[in-house]
Amino acid sequence: MELGFAMLCAGLVRAKNTMNIMLTNVLDAATGGLFYYHFGSTLAYGSPSNGFIGTHFFGLDRFHSPSFDYGFFLYQWAFAIATAGITSGSIAERTQFVAYLIYSSFLTGLVYPIVSQWFWSADGWASPARADNLLFESGVIDFAGFGVVHMVGGIAGIAGFWGALIEGPRIGRFDLNGKSVSLCGHSGTLVVLGTFLLWFGWYGLNPGSFLNILKTYGETGSYYSQWSAIGRTAVTTTLAGSSSALTTLFGKRLVTGHWNVTDVCNGLLGGFAAITGGCSVVDPWAAVICGFVAAWALIGCNKLAEKFKYDDPLEAAHFHGGCGAWGIMFTALFAKKAYVNEIYPGQPRRPYGLLLGGGERLLAAHIVQILVVSGWVSVTMGTLFWLLQKSSLLRISSEVEKAGMDVTSHGGLAYVYHDENNDQALKNSFMMTKVGGSAV
Length: 440
Fold this sequence. Notes:
By secondary structure, this protein is mainly alpha-helical. The chain has helices at 2-12, 18-45, 70-90, 97-120, 146-154, 158-167, 188-205, 226-256, 261-275, 284-307, 316-334, 337-343, 361-390, 398-403, 405-409, 424-430; strands spanning 434-435, 438-439. The protein is built from 16 helices and two strands.
């Protein structure tokens, strides 16, 4: 998935910043590897814990259970660096390189692991895998991370939101009257390539979160087993993304009059982000609804961003944070009783989706998740970005921003290019406009 993030980011920034954004994606993986090894894995899964933070087995000195081995560590590291990758897109094109290194280390080594302890560790205070004292007798069903990964990564949703908010918009993003000005990414080809790589990667993220396939449901020897649930999870993932992509296509056409490939790619990813946590416990028909609403959540976030002059070059906070928050609510409404009991056995009276007759307890637990994730990441990452700003370590100078970070910080341009954003005559010649209510 990190390769998908790198291609998507590269395509959505201007050519003069390509080397910079590619380097940050590489270092998200490298920095995240070291900090998750030394600190993050322990804070997340160092059992036994107090339910809030793990305190045992720093640096993988030994494993607390047979199921937590080197393979499990690598899988969880992939989630951690995905969270950092989301944030880098929100603050692209105007952030000092040293700030990337600091926030990526802090996010993967401390902020993200503590959230994953709360919702994914067997000891976590809000985990559905707890043996007793479940939050609202349910715990939070966040199977593959719409809250743990996507909300943490884009508000990280939140981390990226605070970084972009404190930094302010890129130069030229809004004119003197406050009107939004499009600063187009330089390569639709890379955007589509990155989107397809992420689509493929999501099948490792969602179905892969089962961790094993050889498990039987119901009576011993039953034909129906976990392999079927894994297949269903892949189907719900596909349908949510597809529904969101098509809804975004026609929704943005109504709003702007254009058929825009970037909007469709973001819509697709927004659908994936929304279904991630509930992918294993909902029916395929519900996944279509999930994607439909996620698309409108994304479009609404875009409008709010323009209104409040919030600049996120990749719309990462929009589709990871906004669509991720919708996904949390969606699962609390549509989780099916049979699937919930299969994935989280041992609690026969466990709540399920409100709209399917499961009561309001699961919804209450998921509202708590939104509040605590938003609060925790806002306090930690918001404070970090504020300190970086006060220390003059966050935003680059206007001269560097105008020239581009590749030539000023990274030894040269990624490739020879022509920047259409700086050629007004060319832009006016080829800009799509509305004629008679349709785009030409």
